[in-house]
Amino acid sequence: VINFTVILWIFDHTFLRRFVEGNVFQRFEVQRHVEQMLLLNIGLDTAYIFAGLWLKALAAIPGMNFPELWLGFGWSVILQGAFLFIHDNIFHYLHRANFRKCRPFLEDVMETQLELRRQGV
């Protein structure tokens, strides 16, 4: 649920509100903001893994009711967190690689826009 909410937030922020409108500078800002949200999501994925380890530790407590259940919950949360961690890191890498490719073009366009503003066009 948390990751789904973050993805909806990124989608809304990127495609529905900010990226559709605005100049090149604003698109640079959206790019940077999406990158920060991906890093936040990677942090949440790490928290998932640690929560799974905590659930596994509960299973090891003597006298804990249903230790197999806690162990299973722990492994499932660890597996989910590991998958999301890998997925988000790959997505972040692709996002950065794509931005590096288009950055020189966007900088040229931005310089042109600034020059046109100075000339009053």
Give a written overview of the molecule.
The mean pLDDT is 84. α1 packs antiparallel against α2 and α2 packs antiparallel against α3. This protein is rod-shaped. It has a domain of 66 residues. It is mainly alpha-helical and 121 residues long.
Principal-axis shape equals rod-shaped
- Alpha carbon gap, first and last residue: 48 Å
How much helicity do the residues have? over 70%
Give the quaternary arrangement of the chains.
Answer: single chain
Q: Would you report the number of β strands? A: 0
Per DSSP, the total helix count is 3
The residue ranges in which pLDDT falls below 50 over 5 or more consecutive positions are none
Classify the beta-strand content into a percent band: under 5%
* H/E element order: HHH
Q: Rg, please?
A: 21 Å
Task: Please identify the structural class as seen in this structure.
Answer: mainly alpha
Largest beta-sheet details = none
Mean pLDDT: 84
Summarize this structure briefly.
The protein has helices at 2-18, 24-59, 67-119.
Notable characteristics:
single chain; about 120 residues; mainly alpha; rod-shaped
